[in-house]
Input
Amino acid sequence: MPDHPTRVTAPFLDVAEAFLAASGQELHGWAIIKASGRGGPTVYKILERMASLGWLTSRWDDRTAEPNKPRRRYYKLTGEGVARAQALVGERRPVKSHRQLRPAFDGGDL
Amino acid sequence: VNQVWLVFVIPVLLSLAVNEVCDVAPWLAQKLVRRAARLWAFDDAAQALELGEEWAAIVNDAPGKLTKLGHALRFAGGAVWRFQSQRVIRSAVIQRVLRSRSVVAGSTDVEPAIVSFDAAVAAAGGRIRFLIDDLPIQDQQLYFPDMGEAVGPAAVLLVDEQGRFGGVAFPDGDGGFLAADGHRYIGAHVELNTPGDPLMVQLEQFVRERRQRRGSSK
Output
């Protein structure tokens, strides 16, 4: 089983970033769709790919209080998944610095 | 009378219709995603049930009524597309990156490496992402790690619904592939063919038989 994606796409990076932004929290399907800004089928194809890479674990929600509602499934990056996703996102989407030089008006000290 | 229709009846009927559609939308969305999940999972009933519930939860989580239907339609669209791809793959074609030497020779930006069949499969992460210069399959084959996307398939493997290997088809110059029996197939992309996959087993067996035949004919 390969441990890194053979084809890295923008949606793949978006989903990886959504997981990384959750900082170890579990995410359910709707949360991933919202956070990544990608459509359901796209997200699920990527989840399948991540699972096949061994990056993801999942568990079913226990909604005993609401038996008639469909259960959510929660996903979380494994330890290895976090490391590899961070490396991949860091490599493909390096964080741009938001610090900018601004003119110091009214003779402010620099 | 016309004005009465325009001013009173039509707006009332329209609002009733919109109201009805909005009320039905969540129910319809739930039905739609479960059906979409069945298509998505193709022939895996257990996966279809799980996905159906999971997607139903997503639709449930989506705000609004028509939005739920919108998400369900999106799932349905994706599932139909995937089902079509899977059907083509499973019922007739495993398109794979079987390379002919002539196709590869046209590319100068890729360094070919001579590797064995098994090494090619291993290097490709268990996927059929390799190989042959011409049929019959050779012991030593050309393997181009990223040629799949670069030049497109030179041939496709044909399998039946049980994943049994059934021959090879070659491009017909019109976007499809023509098999020896005259059937035309449309190619599709295959992601999962691990070494334990029935198709891979069949392929390996096919290669072994080829080798044995060639060995016995020498």
